[in-house]
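Posting this for the archive.
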Amino acid sequence: MHVTDYDDEDVVVVDGVPVLAGARMVVDCCAVLPPDSALAVADAALRRRLTTPDALEHELERRHGQPGITVAALVVDRADAGGTNWFESMSRWWLLEAGLPRPALQVPFRGEGRRAEVDMWFPQHHTVGEADGAGKYDEPGSLFAEKVREDWLRDAHRVEVVRWTPVEMRSPRGRTAVVVRFNRAFDRRC
């Protein structure tokens, strides 16, 4: 176990219990969580405005030389307030690890009186990435609505669409299959 001093601003009180928060909490999570999950924590902290990129950088500087700081620096570099959930964040970690370019997150597409926001956008390859958790298809008609949405993206915006599921991202073999689909989509756009 490694103990690091903390400042008063690192602590917030939740239900009467003092807990570490903000940048300190994110960097601490980087030391104990797998990096894909640590990225999800960092994304969520940024999205909820519990910390800022500058505060994360400051915390890294403060922890310079401590164990795990190299991975923490990579997590902080990849953190993005556009990460909306754990699955999207952990997917982004593995896609970046595989050498894919950094995507823009939650990018809106508009036209023909419609609007669609995509999970990941790779503009240099004109490719959309969609992390498909099962919950989004629970409502009746949601699968059909998603099909219509994807058709519109392809037809109106001339984009490739790559989808994947949590099961695929949980194994090296599944992640490889997703990366292959991305590379094929990228090649079709050349």
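DSSP finds eight helices and six strands in the chain. The radius of gyration is 19 Å.
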